[in-house]
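MODEL INPUT / OUTPUT PAIR
PAIR INDEX: 1
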Amino acid sequence: MPSLATILRALTLTLTFLAAPCKAVGITSYANMFFEPSDVINSTWFENSQWAQEMAISWTRKLALNGPWSVTNKTVMAKSGDVHDYLSYAVYYWPNCTSVGNTTALTSEEVWDECPYYRRDGVFNPDIHVVEDNEAMANLTDSVYLAAMAYIGTGDSAYSQHINDAMHTFFVNNATRMNPSIDYSQVIRGPGTQGGRRQGVLDMRGLAKAVSGVLVLRELEAPEWTDETDQGFVQWATDMVTWLETDDLALAEKAASNNHGTFYYNQLCALYALLGENDKAISALNEFYNSTFPGQINANGDQPLETARTRPYHYRAYNLAALTTNARIGDYVGLSPSGWNRTTTSGATMFDALKFAMAQNASTTNEDAEINQLNPTIAAVASKFGDPDGAYAAFLKASDPYYPGQPYFALNAGVSDSGIRQGLLRTTYGAVPAQPTKGSSWGYKRHERSRRRL
């Protein structure tokens, strides 16, 4: 039986993969993901994954309490002065005001503009959240894919309406839309122009999640997903692709050899998939596997560029999540040979990287709280290639005693539930906190279409 500490951690930990925390307590924001409409539409596995569906519904409703989101909600602007410009601050940079020469206390704005900032790798500066565009993007993209799952599971039009309204607000409405560029992302504050950095392109990684949800609504021809929103988002995506293909910041991020480069292709190829430009997605993925990927994994499965960081357990899982997303997009667009089986210069595959990562002790680098960051990737690999020795299921159960209740479980057909079922939790683990359920408390009836606020 898992320890009490493990159980409590699995129940209460909200994982965040950089500095984009969800305001809704208890929601896990996976590093990234992409799924095809066929993974959820007319899928017996998805239909039977009731516990995971219920969690997706619960998370959607929690997130929706803070939406719809917009970059225009901020009160601190980028140096452009345009409220529509996405803005975020470099997460590991801290001010050093000893050289400023002030005789009175500095205001926050004076600190941001006058004090030089220096890097403390792995140490988050909490005042980056004075601007919440990063959080808005994370919450938006999480809510879209989760609401798509909820819509499939319930048939309730409130979820498809939520997707339409959230996407229209963030990408289409002229009053609230984000400009299709990331010229002021991961800004290092202090003296100077305070322009964006190539690392800021990473902030858009969640577009793969949003595209997954939109593809589901398109496939179902959901009436709540309007032509205006679809066409507006297509135009935004077209412009964003142009920025990703041509801007100096974007091209520098594309050339990054670590997880930054992997995530660059996540968002670019997801947008290609949205636009129906599968040939371009295939070309871009081949470029990734022939240029960036070959140097990422050693023969023993180590990812040296991620291991070198101050939080190696996290960053190995992080890049693996991006590799999984690229492989799944590749499956959707018809990439051959499959991204799953591509090899690095050393002859290693992402499976070797996963095996190595699973064998590491998170405690060695004080990363116990990060233990289940590997789980969505493990589930995806087990679904795709099986788990003949049960190693994947054993890891999932040990790191998260309730993993069949995670939304990713419903997206990965065939993954073992290790005998963990919602109705057996009390007999398995003893008294447990109440689990989210559909029913009288929310008034849902499966496949009954209705229009109401979430």
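PAIR INDEX: 2
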Amino acid sequence: MTLKYFHMNKRLLLLVCGLGVLGFSQAQPTRGNLIDNIVARVDDYIILRSELEAGYANYLARGASPSTQAKCEILQSLVLNKVMVAKAEIDSVIVDEGQVQSQLDVAMANALAQFPSEAEFERVYGKSIDEFRDELLPDMRENLTVQTMQRTITENISVTPREVKRFYQQIPRDSLPFFSTEFVVGQFVKKATTSEKEKQRVRDFLLDLRGQIERGEATFEALAQKYSEDPGSGRRGGNLGFTPRGTLVPEYEEMALSLEPNEISDPVLSPFGYHMIQLIERRGNEINTRHILMKPRSTGADMEEAIAYLDSVRNLVITDETVRWEKLAKEHSEDPFTASNGSYFTNPNVGGLRISAKELESTIFFTIDTMQVGTYSQPLPFNMQDGTAAARIIYYKDRFPPHQANLEDDYQKIKTAVLQSKNNEALEEWFEKSRSQVFIYVDPEFQNCRILN
């Protein structure tokens, strides 16, 4: 059996979808009020109709046309994912539980950020946050297993410029996709540095909590649930589980490794705030810890200081032609993700610096909408992803009007599509070799998808 590409133009589809939404993505079940039924099964792993419909909705949301064949492609990718999970179980491939919890923490933080309060989140979903988290955990573990298997299968695949050119030339000229307006945007970030007085207040508070624990007045877990500002581990009594060396931020890990089992540390500062850490157990190259995280609060005066600093940066790059914005941002901007790219945001799907409006933060898009290309905004207060108060300058470097795909302007997108195509071929070959080791059932409703013949 071969996982067919059907008669659709796969090259065109990959190019439109960037990283390849159909390229064996990890679709997650829709948790609504749909009456589900099983559309496929691989050993003990099932695929629900809601998973298939969620993947198809994601495909349509990217501007693609309705297609029965596309839905078959999505079902194929879901089946392949389940085969990878089943095969990982056979081969005793185990993902790191610390990574699973970390990814789950991020997913939960992003989900909660969409609601004005935790109570509203629980009202909308009809379940507590802990229940929602427990329900999501198996999906997150399965997704990480699929990612691990995919990396193993495709890690040695690369793409040459000749392959990119050949791929592009095989797309009919009248079928080349049309890309919307894209932007190149950078930022220079300065955090609103908290005062020493505020930092001391946090340290003293954590030391008081440690005293309560040592006197037997409270447990570490109870205080973490009450006070920790880590939304993930706080709900679990501060527990991070076993994590390999090199997984945690250096400040945290160094302190944790210096502790004896059950010992509680002094407060230690990391980029996330102050941690009070308890070492639970060492096991080979792993440590099991719990912590209470507290973040010093900035004041209006702290923000004014950050804005004054950015004013001087802005004046410098505008008035001194010898100063390079990218070098300045790389060395001094306090957002590590954009600073490493010389201030620029990168396309989350295909890499590169050109980003469409829907991929930009809405606040940034509305800011550049009032700016001219090549100009710098005034310093603007905002909150970073971890909630830290900061200010930033937005640099509107360039704008690319809507256009039909071409090699000069869209090389990175085309290269990503080629890589995804080659990855898919490798995954198909792996599927052919592995499918005999697992049981696969597909509902007769989808027999025309030809997944099993």
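PAIR 2 NOTE: The radius of gyration is 25 Å.
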